[in-house]
Amino acid sequence: MHKLGAGLLVLCLSSGTPVYAQEVQAAVGYARIFGAGGFSFGLGYLQPLHLGSAPLQQRLGATFWYANTDVASLSSGNAARNLVGIGARYEVEATRCCGPVHPLLALPLQILHSSVEDRTVPVQDAIALRLIPEPPSTSSSENRPGSAWGWGAGVELGAEIPLAAQWNLRTTGTAMYQDIYAGSATNGAWLLHVGMTYRFGGGGG
Predict the structure, then answer these.
(1) What is the pLDDT of residues 43-64, one digit of tens each?
(2) What is the per-residue pLDDT for 52?
(3) Cα separation, 61 vs 24, whole angstroms
């Protein structure tokens, strides 16, 4: 009898244990970095910190970000900068205040790697230019060829609209501070993303 009672107790406790819904995010959009813009793509994996029925959903997880943008000192459409970010993200979503629209606030923190392609002058042009003294470079540090590591942090505002039990449409805008290049002319960046979220493994918001 004692073993049977202990077994029933364990079963009751396990059945009452909350099941958390994990979340995968994917989004594409536009990024403006160091005074020039271009393509932006983001991924995220988050674990909610509360039950799916809570009015304020708090999530914490990992993120990946890639952007391919112009370099401000070059002609438009050069797409010479590649920026990769890996880091953490804390997010709060209000699920009961605005009907089908769920406002959200997020705080991303990332390690960043920025690289600028070396647009070498063609050989025939280099031969001709030898007769002309090369002017001193006026580009700021973030626009020169090469790569550098740094970090970034930001504030993100957005909204989600549930499409199905596990799928949400998401749109966000992010303002970021980036510390990558010493002596850079600007450290601000902003992003606009539209994407989807998929929740699995428990009750969704």
Answers:
(1) 999 998 976 677 888 999 999 9
(2) 61
(3) 10
Q: Which residue bears the tokens 């199905």?
A: 164
For the question of whether the overall pTM of this predicted structure is more than 0.70, the answer is yes
- CB-based contact 61:32 (threshold 8 Å): no
CB atoms within 10 A of CB 59: 24
Task: Extract the residue ranges of the chain whose pLDDT is less than 50.
Answer: 1-2, 4-19, 123, 126-127, 133-136, 203-205
What secondary structure does DSSP assign to 81-132, as a single string?
EEEEEEEEEEEEEESSSBTTBEEEEEEEEEEEEEEE---PPPHHHHHHHTTS
Distance in angstroms (rounded) separating the CA atoms of residues 178 and 34: 9
Q: How far apart (Å, rounded) are the C-alpha atoms in residues 84 and 63?
A: 11
Query: At residue 92, what are phi and psi to the nearest 5 degrees?
Result: -125, 130
- 83 contacts: CB under 8 Å, gap ≥ 6: 31, 33, 65, 66, 67, 68, 69, 112, 113, 114, 115
Query: How many residues would you count in the chain?
Result: 205
